[in-house]
Fold this sequence. Notes:
By secondary structure, the chain is α/β, with parallel strands linked by helices. The protein has a single domain (3-234), classed as Rossmann fold. It is built from 10 helices and 9 strands. Strand 3 (66-71), helix 3 and strand 4 (89-95) form a beta-alpha-beta unit. Helix 2 (51-60) crosses helix 3.
Amino acid sequence: MAQFLLIHGSCHGAWCWRDVLPLLQAAGHEARAIDLPSHGADPTPAAKVTLELYARAILGAITDPVVLVGHSMAGYPISLAAELAPQRIDKLVYLCAYVPRNGMSLADMRRAGPSQPLLEAIRRSDDGLTFRIDPRMAEAKFYHDCAHAVPYALPRLCPQPILPQDTPLTLGAAYASVPRHYIRCTDDRTIPPDYQVTMTHGWPSDTVSDMETSHSPFFAAPAELAARLVRIAEGP
């Protein structure tokens, strides 16, 4: 039996894994999801949220070693968690997520990509601490192939603290000791699919796979996603 810990991306919360958790559990595995600080039901003020606080929240949710899955921006905090405590993570799984480059912040990486499809939907707060996604554009950016999830998701999207995404990250041998896998989404309209290919350049072919979905495979193809995660957990 594997243990999964699922980490959401920008503006989301543990709620986005609604359809995947029961499928992993039905397959005989333990699966949980958490709200990162200032997301979902977590009350942490946005002004206090840092990238390290994200990583510490992840580690605080781990008892036995887990398969740690990070969606989108969560590629950064799951990587830092692996650097801080590699012995607590069996495998890292990047789900259409940013794979950190040393010395770069997530915002740096977004700007370095071939395009920034999400940029036109971002609305910064007046105090500069957070951004939101324009609700009129959220379906087109996140959920274009899973319209059934829009009434559930839109009211739950929350402000995204900016500081964690503006924080450069440097990873070392501890992080490198943890096995990594990547699931690319080939119809992603948030992180360009060709950039996902670039971020996984040189990875062993058996650690990278594709899903023909939007940026939200947890709603668009939850059964396929759960099956992929199980195969990764049960593989070498």
